[in-house]
Amino acid sequence: MKRKFITDGIETIIMIVFITALVCLLCNAFFMTHEITGVSRVVNYAGIVRGSSQRAIKQELSQKKVDDQLTYLDGIIDALQHSSSRYKLIKLDSASFQSELIEQKREWQILKKAIYTYRKTPTGKNEQLLLTLSNNYYEICDKTVSIAECYGEGIVTGLKKLEVAIGIVVGILILLSLERSRAIIVNYRNMLRLNRDAYDDPLTGVKNKRYFEEYFPVMSEGCNYSLAFIDIDNLKQVNDKQGHEAGDHYIIEVIEAIREQFRTTDVLFRMGGDEFVVFLKECRESIATRLLEQAREAVHDHTSGSFSYGIVYVHKEDSRSIREILKESDQRMYEYKKTHKSKI
Fold it and tell me: I want to staple 59 with a disulfide (CB 3.0 to 4.6 A). Which of 12, 64, 87, 95 is the partner?
């Protein structure tokens, strides 16, 4: 009895040690998951600076002053450097990122000075200087984004190692006592589900619906854009006649053909099944229509398939909700399908 008591005591101490270790690992996993979200926002806003600065230069070269956009970019750059509750940005704990951001901010001031100079004296020489500085600034911004992405990838790698460590601890707890570790296993599995926060559609490689729901409000904030709702035609017939594997292959072929026609700044989301959404930032409806028609022709040429679409142009001051915009684009897609749908 005394020996069993000692053994039970040792097992209890071991259990407590491993439970404590597991709790620590889970807490670290939670904070790392939260940090990944913060890093994702930093990457997104760093990318906004990269893209918006280039658009601002193009507008300035067209004799259109964009002081509001310059001020907006000033705010984002400061927020990236110091964190911001307004933009929900964290200060990235990366010396290389902060160093590159300081260089980016310095080059941004030089670029703005060149903009003001061009406004006063729009000569060919000043235009060429502005273009050169713009290209240099784009490269710096691109490097800043890459550093932030690498930082995020490092956290993800650490999180995966943490998951392995968590699995080992849980395995030991299971060996010690299945009954005692039952609740811990449930918590572990729940944490694993939280950590598998994948934002890419595994079939097509485009962003998934969850990414759309979480990040589209940020992506579309304060800008004009076109939103296109896409429905791949005749997928059900392919699945019924040739099987779901052929249907998946059909979806992949159609989406690859579509992606080749869009700009690098356009974002494609899979909302489920054969339904996709395209976000075309700062793109008029007429241009979006042209791009989609080109994509439709490319799909037909490469796959003998087709898709239907509906486009809604959204002004930055539009008060409609995302749900309302999606509903309208979906309705327009069905109207298009009635008159344009082709057979495979």
Answer: 64
Centroid of chain to Cα 149: 11
Question: CB-side exposure of 227: number of CA atoms within 13 Å?
Answer: 26
Positive or negative CA dihedral for 256, 302, 279, 138?
Answer: positive
Looking at the DSSP assignment, which residues form a beta bridge with residue 229? 277, 310
Residue type at position 195: N
Cβ–Cβ under 8 Å, residues 159 and 36: yes
Alpha carbons 272 and 210: distance in angstroms, whole number = 11
| Two structure tokens written together for 300 | 């037909």
- In this prediction the pTM is 0.44
CA–CA dist 281, 291 (Å, integer): 13
Strand ranges for 120-195 from DSSP E: none
* Size (the chain), residues: 344
Round to whole Å and give the CA distance between 343 and 236. Answer: 12
Tokens 């142009």 belong to 313
Residue pair 234/340 in contact (Cβ under 8 Å)? The answer is: no
Rounded Cα–Cα distance for residues 173 and 11 (Å): 10
Name every residue whose Cβ is closer than 8 Å to that of residue 77 and which is 6 or more positions away in sequence.
49, 101, 104, 105, 108
Instruction: Name the nearest CA neighbour of 66 among 144, 118, 123.
Output: 118
Three-state DSSP at 54 gives: helix
pLDDT tens, 241-273? 899 899 999 999 999 988 888 888 899 999 999
DSSP secondary structure letters along 200-240: B-TTT-SEEHHHHHHHHHHHTTTS-EEEEEEEETTHHHHHH
pLDDT in tens, 72-113: 988 898 888 888 888 888 888 888 988 988 998 899 999 889
Helix (H, G, I), strand (E, B) or coil at 307: strand
Beta bridge partners of 207: 200, 269
